[in-house]
Amino acid sequence: MLIRRHFVPSAGVPGNYPPVLTSLTPDLTSPQPAGATITFTAIGSDPEGDALQYQFYVDGVAQTGFGSNSWAWETDAGVKDFTIQGSNSATAFANLTYADNTDWTDITANISAMTQHTEGYDGAIWRTIELTNDVAYKYYAIKCANNHGDGNNIGLRRVVFKKLV
C-alpha cells in the first residue's frame, strides 16, 4: 500500500514532511472462502494536515489508482489447473521453475483441475488426488498452470501425501 502526498523535502526547512501510515485493517478476519469480499481500510496522517491519497498494491502490482483510503478485494484465488511431477534430482528441485521440466517426470493423476470454491458452492472444500505412478520419487512438484480469477494469488492450503494400500 502506498500513500501519496506531494512534498519536497528541503534541508533545514521545517514543515514539509512525508505522510505516515498508522493502520491497515481488513473488515473480515482470515481465512475467508473464495468469493468473499474483504475491504481494507488504510489510515494515514500528515504532519502538516495535507490531504492524502492512497494506492493499494498486491505483490508489487497496483490494484487501485491514487484515491480513496479503502479497497475491496474479492478472494477468488485458488488453484484451477495443475500438473504433478516427480524427480530424484536435487538440482531439478533447486531449480523449480514452472517452464523447466529438466529431470522431472509427469505423474498421471485422477484429476488435473480444482473446483472453484465460493460462498455459494456447497461441495467439499478439499480434493483427494490419486497418483497412478509405480515409481517412488524423492521430490514432488505440483505446478499450478492457472487459477480461478485473481492473477496475483495462487496456492494450495494443505498437501498431504500418503501411500494407498
Strands of the biggest beta sheet: in what spatial order?
A: 2-3-7
Sequence stretches where pLDDT stays below 50 over 5 or more residues: 1-7
What's the rounded overall pLDDT mean? Answer: 75
Helical segment count: 1
For the termini, the CA-CA separation is 50 Å
Number of domains: 2
Overall shape: it is: elongated
Question: What's the Cα radius of gyration?
Answer: 23 Å
Helix content: under 10%
Give the helix/strand layout.
Elements: E1 2-4, E2 20-26, E3 37-45, E4 53-55, E5 57-58, E6 61-62, E7 70-74, E8 82-87, H1 90-94, E9 105-107, E10 139-144
Antiparallel strand pairs: 1-4, 2-3, 3-7, 5-6, 8-9, 8-10
Model description:
It is a single chain. This protein has 1 helix and 10 strands; from the N terminus they run ββββββββαββ. It is mainly beta. The chain folds into 2 domains: 2-8 and 15-74, no CATH class; 77-165, no CATH class. The strands form 4 sheets. Strands 2-3-7 form a 3-stranded antiparallel β-sheet, with no helix packed on it. It is elongated, with a radius of gyration of 23 Å. The termini are far apart. The model is unreliable at 1-7 (pLDDT under 50).
